[in-house]
Each structure stands twice: as C-alpha cells, then as structure tokens.
Design a protein that fits this description.
Layout (H helix, E strand, L loop, with lengths): L1 H51 L2 H20 L28 E5 L4 E7 L3 H4 L3 E3 L12 E6 L21 E6 L2 E13 L14 E9 L6 E10 L20 H39 L1
Parallel strand pairs: 2-3, 4-7
Antiparallel strand pairs: 1-2, 1-5, 3-4, 5-6, 6-8, 7-8
Length: about 290
C-alpha cells in the first residue's frame, strides 16, 4: 500500500516540476504577448484621444512642439547616454502628450508598433520607447534630430530587439498630432555609449535616430539607426502599390529565442521520462533474473 502511495507522490512531484519548469520557460513568450497587447491598447487609446482634439487644440500642440525645437536648435543641449543608470526623469514637455504618450513609432519590417513616452527612465524603457531629452521633440521639421531609445533582449517585451534587422532603404513611421511622418533609413552605426556626435542636429536636415544597446545581451555599445524624412504617400495603407510588399520577419524569427528555450525544456523533460522508463524496465528485469 505504501509502495503505491509513494509512486503516486513521486508522479505528483514530477508533474509539478514539469509544470513549474514549463511555466518558467514559457513566461517570456507569454509576458511579451501580454505587453504587446497592452501597448496596442495604449496606442488605440492615443488614437481615440487624438480624434477628440479640436483643430485648434491640435495646432496648439504642434506649434508648441515646434517652438521648443527652435529653441533647442539655437542652443543645443548636452546629450547623454539613455541607458546610463544616473539619468534623471525627463523634463515634462506636456504640450505634445495626448493621454500618457507623445505618439508611437511603427516599423513594418519588424512588425512592431510601440508607444513613445517622455524621457528614458528605466520605468519608461521597461514598457515602451523613450524620447531622449536634449534631442528634438519627434514632431518633424527642418533642422531637427529626434532620438528614440528602446531596450533589446528584455524577457517581458521585445521592443527594439530586432532593430539590427533593419537595412538602409527600410522605412519607419511616427504618428503624432501632426499626422504620420515617414523616414527612410540612411545610416546604421555602432558606437560607444559616450559617442553622441551622430545624434546632434544638422542644419537643414530632418532626422530621427532609433537607438538601442549592442551587441545583443552584451550591451557594451550602442546601435544607431538613423532615418531622414521622406514624403508620406500612404505607405502604411494595405492597398498601397507604390513599392514592393514589405518582407516582414517571420513569427519564428521574431520569437526564436523563446521557441528554442521552450523546445529545450520539452526535450529535457521528455528525455527524463525516457530515462525513467528505461531504469524502471531494467529494475524489473533485474528482479525477474533473481
């Protein structure tokens, strides 16, 4: 009787270990899907609030943002590394916010749409993309250079994890109170954290740089993906035929790290099950031989 009870207890323990191990392995994928859903909800709320704005309110926000950028251009601030733990919360620039965000960035090739928050505090970078203080507000305009920063390799959200898959000629888009701004990637650089020369405003140019850590999971350097402004000609429209269809990264490519981890866990527990079966048969035969 005790033997059967012990076997049941062992099976229960193994089952609990399997469930716990599977949950740990599946957590990053599930957490990322939940965060993606939350980001989509925040963006949806932003678009709803944007539609409620009167034309006067919308223009007021745009003009205030442009005035800020003009002042910045006259005496550019010092730009610091957004991933420096010593960075403080950004100065409030509430005139551009609609709800809790400044807008959102969309990168069709990477199949991501991410909210843009003020500042680059760790709180901000854990949930979305941060606007780097000391750079232009992402509203467009001549002689501006906005820098948008995001993490790579977070277990709970992909954010800019796949930024290294962008190439010169790829497009990304920013949605804000002034509409949809389109940019074409024209420069990709790997620099040290204190090398910020490529983030400065260049007279007459209109740039946005997407910034993240590099290499993946090492984070000793920074990847700068710069885009210059191009006309928006409905590139995000599903029926747009001005260019070849954008080749998005596959589901496997997007989540391969998580899939490998889950696959390895399943293989481990399956191997454990097989070994247990073999040992049980060996013991049974040993008893019979006696």
């Amino acid at each position: 009787m005790n033997g059967k009870k012990n076997k049941k207890i062992k099976k229960m323990i193994l089952l609990l270990i399997f469930i716990a191990g599977s949950s740990v392995c599946a957590y990053p994928l599930i957490a990322n899907l939940i965060n993606t859903r939350n980001q989509t909800k925040i963006i949806s709320n932003y678009e709803s609030e944007l539609e409620k704005l009167s034309e006067e309110e919308r223009l007021e926000k745009i003009e205030a943002a442009r005035a800020y950028n003009e002042v910045l251009n006259e005496g550019q601030n010092v730009i610091s590394d957004p991933f420096d733990n010593g960075m403080q919360e950004s100065q409030e620039i509430s005139f551009i916010d609609i709800g809790e965000i400044m807008g959102y960035v969309e990168i069709p090739k990477l199949d991501i749409k991410l909210p843009i928050y003020q500042g680059t505090s760790e709180t901000v970078l854990q949930k979305g993309i941060g606007w780097l203080e000391g750079t232009s507000v992402p509203i467009g305009g001549e002689s501006t250079h906005s820098v948008l920063s995001g993490h790579r390799g977070l277990p709970t959200s992909r954010l800019f994890t796949d930024l290294d898959k962008l190439e010169n000629g790829d497009n990304f888009f920013i949605r804000n109170a002034d509409g949809i701004l389109a940019y074409e990637v024209d420069q990709i650089k790997i620099v040290l954290p204190d090398e910020t020369e490529d983030l400065l405003i260049i007279e007459g140019k209109e740039y946005v740089t997407l910034l993240t850590c590099h290499p993946y999971m090492v984070n000793s350097h920074r990847m700068l993906v710069r885009g210059h402004r191009i006309p928006y000609t409905n590139q995000l429209d599903e029926n747009y035929d001005g260019k070849e269809e954008i080749q998005k990264i596959s589901f496997f490519e997007k989540y391969k790290e998580y899939i490998y981890i889950i696959g390895a866990a399943v293989a481990f527990f399956f191997l454990l099950f097989i070994i247990k079966k073999i040992i049980r048969r060996w013991r049974k035969r040993s008893r019979q031989d006696r």
